[in-house]
Design goal:
This protein has one domain (about 10-145): Tetratricopeptide repeat domain (Serine Threonine Protein Phosphatase 5, Tetratricopeptide repeat, Alpha Horseshoe), CATH 1.25.40.10. It has eight helices and no strands. It is mainly alpha-helical. α1 runs antiparallel to α2, α3 runs parallel beside α5 (about 80-95) and α5 (about 80-95) crosses α8 (about 130-145).
Length: about 150
């Protein structure tokens, strides 16, 4: 698709996501950034910005992750995983009260008990490669622990 249309925002975004799933988040980041620049008014921009925020989070670029995840929350507030990743980023930054508020929003959107532990999330989130799994452990799950999500 990119060969036919190098300005296809969704083709670039999907390629960026694929790079993440094979363990190359660093290579996926510029592709997602370009996708957002190409299509800033896309009705699905929340999905693009949450992926961009997630990649920043996985690369431990916490301030940038918070910026993009906050944008995602503004454009797609009903997506629970936006709040989940934002809770993780705030947890890693040491802003535990804000992190906890985001976890409460996840529960409100999903219903009580839907996301009850790190173990449950680990079982339900498919990351792809061992590299991607390791990035989730050291960032997303570490931040959620600091936000107050229990291990079991």
């Amino acid at each position: 698709m990119i060969a036919f249309n190098p300005n296809s925002a969704w083709a670039l975004a999907l390629l960026g996501c694929c790079k993440f799933y094979v363990g190359s988040s660093e290579e996926g980041l510029p592709l997602l950034e370009q996708a957002v620049r190409l299509s800033p008014r896309d009705p699905q921009i929340g999905y693009l910005t949450v992926r961009l925020g997630l990649l920043y989070l996985l690369l431990s670029l916490i301030d940038e992750a918070i910026i993009w995840l906050s944008k995602a929350r503004s454009t797609a507030p009903a997506l629970p995983f936006v709040h989940l990743f934002l809770a993780s980023a705030y947890g890693l930054k040491g802003e535990t009260e804000r992190a906890h508020e985001e976890l409460v929003e996840v529960s409100r959107l999903n219903g009580p008990g839907h996301v009850s532990s790190i173990t449950e999330l680990r079982a339900n989130l498919r990351h792809g490669s061992p590299e991607a799994d390791a990035q989730f452990e050291t960032t997303v799950f570490a931040g959620l622990r600091k936000a107050g999500l229990p291990e079991e």
